[in-house]
Design brief:
This protein is α/β, with parallel strands linked by helices and 306 residues long. The chain folds into 2 domains: 177 residues, Nitrogenase molybdenum iron protein domain (Rossmann fold); 120 residues, 3-Layer(aba) Sandwich (Rossmann fold). 44% of the residues lie in helices and 14% in strands. It has 10 helices and 10 strands. The strands form 4 sheets. The chain has a 4-stranded parallel β-sheet with strand order 2-1-3-4, with helices on both faces. Strands 5-6 form a two-stranded antiparallel sheet. Helix 6 runs parallel beside helix 10.
């Protein structure tokens, strides 16, 4: 849907709801929270447990860089008590819609309060900030804390409950952070190179000491050319890299071009498996949770490169 039409619909919906205050809810009502990505949805579900309804707009295999709000999404967003999104331009095509909605209700960018010194810039993408903070579990912990803070401001009645649940979840995430580091360390130094379709794993690389290269930039909006493929083929051949990886939310043709280029140059590189980058797995599976997604990625990387 054209962004101008989306904005018109949002404004029209505001007009029909002009009698409502920003946080108007009846006593005892369950909070209705809408998120953009599944990672945020999962974190909030760990915080609110069964005390609120949480749903995500973007499901498995969905690329948030390219995502445009549908009419159904607008209905969900306007009917929500609160909206949580990543920020840092991850949901670039929804920015104006989210800005308009923030006039009427809490709209929270979970990455907003992370210290800028911990964020990565992307010189090849207009010096934007890399939005893929969830790949460093320690950074995701900071995002979870921001979700908890915002929830307590929205619903102070359940503040202590949210705090207790957040503490328990953060304890789990700290263990996950340590586990990821120890698992990646089992890959020999010279083989510890992760190659994917787009540069989503920069924070992962810095946090867990693995070199990362992507064919595209931090956003799938950027395009790759023959020179990009050729340079990556040369790098793989020279470093004798065993495997490259497909992303579940990015078309496989980009990596296929690299694999084919290596083959033509006389070096065979395999596809090491599917990694969850901008979206989690199917609901009801281990990979449909943040912790399960991270573990699945690490196991795939280690098994292919070790």
């Amino acid at each position: 849907m054209d962004n101008r039409i989306v904005l018109f619909l949002v404004i029209a919906m505001f007009a029909t709801a002009c009698g409502k205050t920003k946080n108007e809810r009846k006593f005892g009502d369950r909070l209705n929270i809408v998120t953009t990505t599944g990672m945020i949805e999962d974190a909030l579900k760990n915080i609110v447990k069964d005390s609120a309804d949480v749903s995500a707009l973007m499901g498995p295999g969905v690329d948030p860089h390219l995502y445009k709000a549908t009419q159904g999404d607008l209905n969900k967003l306007t009917g929500a008590d609160a909206i949580f999104y990543n920020g840092l331009q991850l949901e670039g095509k929804m920015s104006e819609v989210l800005s308009k909605l923030s006039v009427r209700k809490p709209v929270v960018a979970v990455a907003h309060k992370i210290d800028s010194s911990k964020l990565k810039s992307a010189p090849d993408y207009n010096y934007a900030i890399d939005p893929h903070i969830w790949f460093d579990v320690s950074l995701w912990i900071e995002a979870v804390k921001e979700m908890n803070r915002a929830l307590q401001e929205i619903d102070s009645t359940n503040a202590a409950y949210y705090d207790n649940n957040t503490d328990a979840y953060i304890t789990e995430l700290k263990k996950l952070h340590e586990w990821v580091g120890s698992e990646i360390a089992t890959i020999p130094d010279h083989q510890r190179i992760l190659i994917t379709a787009h540069d989503a794993f920069g924070y992962f690389g810095e946090a867990y000491n693995i070199e990362v290269k992507g064919l595209q930039g931090i956003s799938t909006l950027s395009e790759y050319g023959l020179r990009d493929v050729s340079d990556l083929v040369d790098f793989i051949s020279q470093n004798k890299i065993k495997a490259v990886f497909v992303e579940t939310s990015v078309p496989q043709r980009a990596i296929n071009a690299v694999v084919e280029g290596c083959k033509k140059s006389g070096f065979d590189v395999s596809i090491g498996g599917n990694l969850y980058s901008d979206a989690m797995g199917e609901s009801g599976t281990p990979e449909g949770t943040y912790v399960g997604m991270v573990k699945a990625n690490v196991n795939t990387i280690v098994n292919a490169l070790k």
